[in-house]
Amino acid sequence: MSRLDALKMFTRWPAYAAFEEREAGSIAVGKRADFTVFSADVLTIPEADILNVQCVMTVVGGEVVFAAQAR
After folding, report:
1. Which conformational region is residue 30 in: left (phi greater than 0), alpha (psi within -120 to 50 degrees), or beta?
2. Distance (Å, rounded) from C-alpha 56 to C-alpha 65?
3. What's this model's pTM, rounded to 2 decimal places?
4. Phi, psi at residue 66, to the nearest 5°?
5. Is the separation of the CB atoms in 29 and 3 below 8 Å?
6. What are φ and ψ of residue 65, in 5° steps?
7. Domain limits, the chain
8. What is the pLDDT of residues 11-54, one digit of tens each?
9. Residue 37: other Cβ atoms inside 10 A
């Protein structure tokens, strides 16, 4: 499975399966703002580095529900 397919497995595809593709599943104007910000781009970094990526921020419904402490 490609990295892009793995990402879609947690975003677009569940929204489509729940008939919510107009409200969720991707970042676009008018859709729910539910997303996670990581410390690196998991689609482009070396595979060996993916396990070291940290969660920097989580947004649910447009509200920040987690923000990592600045180091």
Report:
1. left
2. 11
3. 0.81
4. -150, 135
5. no
6. -105, -15
7. 1-30, 33-71
8. 999 999 999 999 999 999 999 989 999 999 999 999 999 999 99
9. 14
